Each structure stands twice: as C-alpha cells, then as structure tokens.
Amino acid sequence: MVAAGDADQHSVAERLGIKPDMVVQEIGWDEDVDDDLRAAIEEHTGAELLDEDADEVIDVVLLWWRDGDGDLGDALVDARAPLDDEGVVWVLTPKTGEAGHVEPSEIAEAVPTVGLSQTSNLSVGDGWTATRLVPRSTSRR
C-alpha cells in the first residue's frame, strides 16, 4: 500500500537532484530528522544512505544542521572532503519557528569561507528546509 505522501517525497528526492545509483552520505543524523525524506532518497537511489564514516567518493551530502550543533564552517569542510568534484551539499535545517532553527545568514556567512556557493533553497518536508551548496568554480575557462 502506498501512503498519500510517498509521491511527494519521491519528487522531493528528484528536486534535490538525486538520481538513481548516486552515492548519498548523511551527516548529522538525529532522532528529529525527516525519516520519510530519508526513505524516499534511499528508494530513489536504490541504496542506503552512507554515514559519516564512509570512505567512498560521494555525489550528494545531506548535512542535517541545527542551531547549537557547533561550527557550520568546520562541518562543511568535513562534508566537502569526500565529495566528488561536481558533488552537492544540501544543508538541511529546521524551518523558522521549529526547535533548532538556523538563520539563513549563518549559512551565507559560512559558505564562501569553505569554497562553496549557495544556489537555491527548497522546502523538503513539514519541518525542514534544504540549502543547496556547490563547489565554486576554480577555473575561468
């Protein structure tokens, strides 16, 4: 039986640019994460999300981040390390009014210092917003 929200969650995985067979790593998991989103991504890719200790080349990093989690710049440096040259980091933060909400300015301030560019924001569930970060181009060809 398919739940009513399944089609929506599947399309969210696609809106995140996640394709079948992509390698997706999850950092910052805790009990408050959106399990429906996680399951939709796993179903869409055909594989489980890798944890923080994975040593593979990663296509997409999902970084669950909340106010009080520490230094976002440091977390982004760690998230970037295994990332493919064309890889994407999605910073998933609680929406405004939710516990752990992170001000968009905090993300905007951390991004340039770690060689990333912020490109878009998406709502990815009832309580979470996703901010897309991509590596800045190092060549001007």
UniProtKB/TrEMBL annotation:
InterPro entries: DUF3052. This is DUF3052 domain-containing protein.
